[in-house]
Amino acid sequence: LRMLERQVVGGEQAENKDLKEKQKRRKKYAAERRMQLVAALQQSNEDSGDWVLLNVYDSIQEEVRAKSKLLEKMQKKLRAAETEIRDLQSEFELEKIDYLGTIRRLERDLMLFQQLLDQVQSLVRRDCNYSNLEKIKRESVWDEETGCWKIPEPVIQKTRLP
Known about the structure:
- The protein is mainly alpha-helical.
- The protein contains 5 helices and 2 strands; from the N terminus they run H-H-H-H-H-E-E.
- A two-stranded antiparallel sheet has the order 1-2.
- The longest helix is centred in the middle third of the chain and has 62 residues, at 60-121.
- The radius of gyration is 43 Å and the shape is rod-shaped.
């Protein structure tokens, strides 16, 4: 009776050691796979967590639906990133145009001041220190605190003949 019971409870293969070994290996593999999935979920962020979970499917239709959802989510992210890139590029382009306009305006102002200095320099008395612009440029000092140039005071050097 016991012998019949062992055969019925375990089936015909109840005493088969190879089958028992195979079942142990399957259980061990399933436990390892479960541990890997848990570890992957703990280490990954939301998106990659979905990716790990989507690898186990009951049917092809389920896999297609899951991958379609993931594809739609990635396409939304891609569109958002492309929009942000376009916005940044247009912003940089506007700034570039503004900077170029500022540079052109400053160059025109510099040319005006240079031409004015060239015209006025001939009118300055020769015994004044402002008659030599190069010397004034060398003696001028930039002041970081005030943010402007310190230019030497104009001095007229009178020469007396004995």
